[in-house]
């Protein structure tokens, strides 16, 4: 027997709520096919290099780049950058904050490096936060601005009492373009493009301090063997020429540039951070008011403005709820697969309209009321 459908007047205008790949504004996708598009052209020629130059300039404007800091980019996404940071930014030992799947992945990469001592790991259960503290003989401190798997947001501030030459390495993959940050507190603020930057995967971008660039040059000039693809100094050299080491996905570059320009045109990071805080607030208030739902992150101060995780009462099968939503065209509200909780996870990235999140809550109310 067919399940009843959500009334059309309740549905959001755009039903995409995934945490990555995320919603790409439709006008940006349409622009890829316009006459004069760089699609299908050489990435070494001026038209594409102008796009890369614009990305670097616009990201610098969004984050008010401190003197000497540079924007670099390369192929492979943040996962590749974990390995790049392991070989090019950590000299002997790192300290990491682990409070979800993605912070754990970078810590695991560091543990596997045969030329490094095991990292000092500061760990908290999913839904909570642990930041690294000063440790002797540690030369790099790493955590995530936003833990995408759990919806925990962390401060971006250089830890107290660390050595002056220690580097601070912050994963901003689901934060960049949606959360404000003082990048002067970091040495590498790195991210992928498929979340608040509303593009596609396969590209990493990083805002690098002079100290990070110098460290990478020292380590790649040492006896430590570094594959060219993981050589941050090579990536910096190519970025200064407004290109990448090997062929990038041109559509990704075009969409990143379009999103950066859109953010700047609307008021920059202050506007983006205000928008995501407002949009996520709609969901958190709904979760607190509904007797069948609870925000997963119990501390309001740790609740992410860009990734909202909501526990569902055990009387409701969250997997079935997500499946029913998908049957009605509402996409990608499933929880992070490895967390294993009866919950939903919703992106409230910069490109997601607040009115669509309002509509989502109405649709969820309808589904909960009309569940089997």
Automatic annotation (TrEMBL):
<dbReference type="InterPro" id="IPR006272">
    <property type="entry name" value="Pser_aminoTfrase_mycobac"/>
</dbReference>
<dbReference type="GO" id="GO:0004648">
    <property type="term" value="F:O-phospho-L-serine:2-oxoglutarate aminotransferase activity"/>
</dbReference>
<comment type="pathway">
    <text>Amino-acid biosynthesis; L-serine biosynthesis; L-serine from 3-phospho-D-glycerate: step 2/3.</text>
</comment>
<keyword id="KW-0808">Transferase</keyword>
<keyword id="KW-0963">Cytoplasm</keyword>
<dbReference type="InterPro" id="IPR015421">
    <property type="entry name" value="PyrdxlP-dep_Trfase_major"/>
</dbReference>
<keyword id="KW-0028">Amino-acid biosynthesis</keyword>
<feature type="domain" description="Aminotransferase class V">
    <location>
        <begin position="142"/>
        <end position="323"/>
    </location>
</feature>
<keyword id="KW-0032">Aminotransferase</keyword>
<comment type="function">
    <text>Catalyzes the reversible conversion of 3-phosphohydroxypyruvate to phosphoserine and of 3-hydroxy-2-oxo-4-phosphonooxybutanoate to phosphohydroxythreonine.</text>
</comment>
<dbReference type="Pfam" id="PF00266">
    <property type="entry name" value="Aminotran_5"/>
</dbReference>
<dbReference type="InterPro" id="IPR015424">
    <property type="entry name" value="PyrdxlP-dep_Trfase"/>
</dbReference>
<protein>
    <recommendedName>
        <fullName>phosphoserine transaminase</fullName>
        <ecNumber>2.6.1.52</ecNumber>
    </recommendedName>
</protein>
<comment type="similarity">
    <text>Belongs to the class-V pyridoxal-phosphate-dependent aminotransferase family. SerC subfamily.</text>
</comment>
<dbReference type="InterPro" id="IPR000192">
    <property type="entry name" value="Aminotrans_V_dom"/>
</dbReference>
<dbReference type="InterPro" id="IPR015422">
    <property type="entry name" value="PyrdxlP-dep_Trfase_small"/>
</dbReference>
<keyword id="KW-0664">Pyridoxine biosynthesis</keyword>
<keyword id="KW-0718">Serine biosynthesis</keyword>
<keyword id="KW-0663">Pyridoxal phosphate</keyword>
<dbReference type="InterPro" id="IPR022278">
    <property type="entry name" value="Pser_aminoTfrase"/>
</dbReference>
């Amino acid at each position: 027997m067919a399940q009843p459908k959500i009334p059309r007047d309740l549905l959001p205008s755009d039903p995409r709520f995934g945490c990555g790949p995320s919603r790409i504004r439709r006008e940006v996708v349409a622009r890829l096919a316009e006459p004069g598009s760089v699609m299908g052209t050489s990435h070494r020629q001026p038209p594409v290099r102008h796009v890369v130059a614009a990305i670097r300039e616009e990201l610098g404007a969004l984050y008010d780049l401190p003197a000497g800091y540079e924007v670099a980019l390369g192929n492979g996404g943040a996962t590749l950058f974990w390995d790049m940071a392991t070989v090019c930014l950590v000299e002997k030992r790192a300290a990491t904050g682990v409070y979800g799947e993605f912070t754990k992945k970078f810590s695991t990469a560091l543990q596997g490096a045969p030329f490094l001592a095991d990292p000092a790991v500061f760990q908290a259960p999913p839904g909570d936060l642990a930041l690294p503290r000063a440790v002797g003989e540690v030369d790099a401190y790493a955590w995530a601005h936003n833990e995408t798997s759990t919806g925990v947001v962390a401060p971006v501030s250089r830890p107290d009492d660390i050595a002056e030459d220690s580097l601070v390495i912050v994963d901003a993959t689901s934060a960049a373009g949606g959360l404000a940050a003082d990048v002067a507190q970091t040495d590498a603020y790195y991210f992928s493009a498929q979340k608040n930057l509303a593009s596609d995967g396969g590209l990493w971008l990083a805002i690098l301090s002079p100290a990070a660039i110098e460290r990478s040059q020292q380590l790649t000039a040492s006896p430590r063997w570094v594959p060219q693809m993981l050589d941050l100094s090579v990536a910096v050299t190519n970025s200064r020429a407004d290109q990448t080491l090997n062929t990038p996905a041109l559509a990704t570059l075009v969409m990143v540039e379009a999103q950066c320009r859109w953010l700047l045109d609307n008021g920059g990071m202050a506007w983006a951070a205000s928008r995501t805080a407002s949009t996520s607030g709609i969901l958190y208030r709904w979760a607190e008011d509904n007797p069948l739902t609870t925000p997963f992150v119990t501390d309001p101060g740790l609740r992410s403005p860009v990734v909202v995780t909501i526990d569902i009462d055990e009387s409701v099968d969250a997997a079935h709820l997500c499946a029913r939503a998908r049957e009605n065209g509402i996409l990608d509200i499933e929880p992070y697969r490895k967390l294993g909780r009866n919950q939903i996870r919703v992106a409230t990235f910069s490109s997601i309209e607040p009115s669509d999140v309002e509509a989502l809550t109405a649709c969820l109310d309808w589904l909960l009321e009309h569940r089997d």
